Amino acid sequence: MGSLRVLASDGMNKTAVQELTKKGYDVVEQFYAPEELGEQLRNFDALVIRSATKVRKPIIDKAAEAGRLKIVIRAGVGIDNVDVEYAQSKGIIVKNTPNASTNSVAELVIGSLFSLARFVYDANQTMHEGKWEKKRYEGIEIAGKTLGVAGMGRIGRSVAKKAAALGMSVVYTDIVGHLPENEPFKFMSLDEVLASSDFITLHMGGADKPVLDAENFAKIKRGAFLINAARGSLIDEAALLAALESGQLAAAALDVFAEEPCKNEKIYTHPKILLTPHIGASTVEAQSRIGDELVQIITGCFA
What we know:
The chain is an alpha/beta fold. It has helices at 14-22, 34-40, 57-66, 84-89, 102-118, 120-128, 154-165, 190-196, 214-217, 237-246, 265-268, 284-301; strands at 5-8, 26-29, 46-49, 71-74, 93-96, 146-150, 169-173, 186-187, 199-202, 224-228, 249-254, 273-275.
């Protein structure tokens, strides 16, 4: 059959490519549209994806017909862009790299939190326009404020620890309920977290319907700040815009969107939204760790 072939449809860390090549793997970095991907997977043993590639049932069916594809690896935390159970039912293993980007995403959240509190982006922009608007940018300190963490997995816990070290009170909610390992932080229902938090950060998996819809935005403490570096599907973007316009929400920081790249002009032009293009895991260190995990998973699968 020749060398084992790996398709990295959304690219791969160069060091990981070099390491796999040294071990005799043929690594192809090429993005394929959904209508092409299934057919192409007939010729590969492993598929590595990030967030751009979606591996749904029709693609899985085509790959399974040939019987060559053995594993799909999401280079990141969430795997909601893969029909996991269906793939597994066809004998295809599905893995992710849950540890590699935890700190990177958590640091982006904390950076966004500071930026929102102190108007860092806005002040920078007006300074570049030659303006000196010192009186306009009176911010708030985050020390002594309450951070609500919705979803207390690896990233949520990392954010909580960093926020506590900065003097914030941390409350959280999680689908599995109170988690003993999170004893330093106070467990609450989602409604209680929304009502009591000065800053809210989302760290849940993908949802069939938005967690923050119009009804839940109305429950948020008036004037709170929102950060989402998890999944765009967690927020009803129309309800978000309404909450910003009414003052229910002071501002928001978004790294993820309902559609990516973001095509919602009302979102990407809104003055109260701090925007980043899904860069939560985009650090040198995180990509290196992801590459290491990919090599371990792939070589382990075909050992």
